[in-house]
Amino acid sequence: MTTLAQGPNGSKYVFAPGTYGLRDRPVTPPLRMIIDFCTSNLPEGSQYIDVGAADGHLVSKAGSLRPFRILCVDPSRTAVEACREAIKLYGTAMDGAIQGVLTGMQLGPADAIGMWRVPHSLRDKVRHANFAAAHRTVVKGGHFFVAAKSNNDWEVDALKGLGKYKPGKVNDLGPVLGLDEEFPCRFFSEEELSQSVAEHGFKILRCGEFEDENGWERLRSRYNKYRYLWAQKI
Ligand SMILES: C[S@@+](CC[C@H](N)C(=O)[O-])C[C@H]1O[C@@H](n2cnc3c(N)ncnc32)[C@H](O)[C@@H]1O
Predict the structure, then answer these.
(1) Are 222 and 205 in contact (CB under 8 A)?
(2) CATH number for 161
(3) Domain count, the chain
(4) How far apart are CA 72 and CA 64, in angstroms?
(5) 74, 137, 212: which to mutate for ligand 1, most atoms within 8 A of CB?
(6) How large is the C-alpha radius of gyration of the chain?
(7) How many A from CA of 94 to the centre of ligand 1?
(8) What is the helix (H) or strand (E) element at residue 41, kind and residue range?
(9) Which atom of ligand 1 is nearest to the CA of 76?
(10) In this predicted model, what pLDDT tens digit does every residue of 36-76 receive, in sequence order?
């Protein structure tokens, strides 16, 4: 049995030392697309906010030869400490890491915001509040990159096998992952993710699916499917 790390306000977060890690894994094509886009398009002195930065996966892969600053944000103190270490090892003197959530802070303006593999573990209301906060925080014409679990993922089949899948709703993945507590997860079709982001004033530029190793050590051999989405503030 595994327990999740306890976050502020009693909420559960997926990042816990020794159980979860992304930094040493290969860069997936959508993440490479974001890094390449930002590196060639964000002007000097601009800011990219990495919401739910975990162990600094993005900052450790973005390279130090870039003109823009990466601000890592995560509610987990352990994650923020890991991000600071990643910045020291791979980042630049401009980068930073801060403990908190986008909805609770004034972090803008940002030229781009990433919320990579985070929205599926948020309750609907919290996800909407985060997308609205992303729209407030990013400059006009700025970019928003999102990745969330796809409804083609193996966990959907596992939930269906247990007769517990609730499409379009937050599911409890606890029984599938062998956890002794609830693990909220919402799976997205392309239309659902696009609509959820577009209703906050973004224009959808691209939407697709990608596969990545599971972040959890004990599930490392399993692949998860995610939807990625690239949107622009209009
Ligand atoms: C699956 S990890 C994503 C890691 C990273 N973005 C990546 O894909 O490489 C999810 C992270 O989101 C964080 N998180 C949970 N709730 C959050 C919220 N409301 N706002 C921002 N981050 C949150 C967790 O602490 C965890 O570090």
Answers:
(1) no
(2) 3.40.50.150
(3) 1
(4) 15
(5) 74
(6) 17
(7) 22
(8) helix 29-41
(9) 25
(10) 999 999 999 999 999 999 989 999 999 898 999 999 999 99
